[in-house]
Amino acid sequence: MDNGLLFLHNIMRWVILVLLLLSIFRAFSGWKNRRAFTPADRKTWLFAMIAGHITLLIGLYQLLLGRYGLLTVDAPEGGVMKDKFYRFFWVEHPTFMILAIVMMTLGYGTAKKNLADDQKFRRAMWLFIVALLFVLVAIPWPFRAGIGRPWFPIMQD
Question: Which long-range contacts (CB under 8 A, 24 or more apart) does 74-82 make?
Fold first, then answer.
């Protein structure tokens, strides 16, 4: 089960990246073209938020009970902050991803607010951009020494 959830968590990174890029594009084009806010805009933002929340739940399980979870592994000698691997997966990754999901949720929340359409688009665009930056910083990219993961989970050893 642990491997399956880790696989799903890894795949969801790509889903979130695509949905965030699509949300940013729709918000930017809606703002610049001064078009009316549509149900398609709201649904795109909703799907991005849902994907983020699903990934968060899987990630919280991994953080607590996964292969290197807080409840399954003893803290490293010298403390968590001195160990690059545990610092990333126990502190940095969860913190940035939770912040990204908060930004995605706030971005979707603008769809429900009684604002002018250009304000909705502009506010959501910036929130989704910040969420995207947080996600990009917190993903364990393959080129990151000591914490890197494969581009796609199928490439894992």
Answer: none
CA distances from 115 to 36, 37, 43, 111, 118 (A): 12, 10, 17, 9, 8
Residue 150 and residue 84: Cα distance in Å, rounded?
A: 18
* Model confidence pLDDT, tens digit, residues 24-47: 999 999 999 999 999 999 999 999
Question: What's the pTM?
Answer: 0.91
Mapped onto helix, strand or coil, the DSSP state of residue 40 is helix
- Count H helices and E strands in the chain, helices first: 5, 0
Q: Is 115 left (phi over 0), alpha (psi -120 to 50) or beta?
A: beta
Amino acid 139: pLDDT? 94
CB neighbour list of residue 81: distance below 8 Å, 6 or more residues apart: 87, 91
The enclosing H or E element of 80 equals none
Is 118 exposed, middle or buried (CB count within 10 Å of its CB: 0-12, 13-18, 19+)? middle
The answer to whether 50 and 101 have CB atoms below 8 angstroms apart is: no
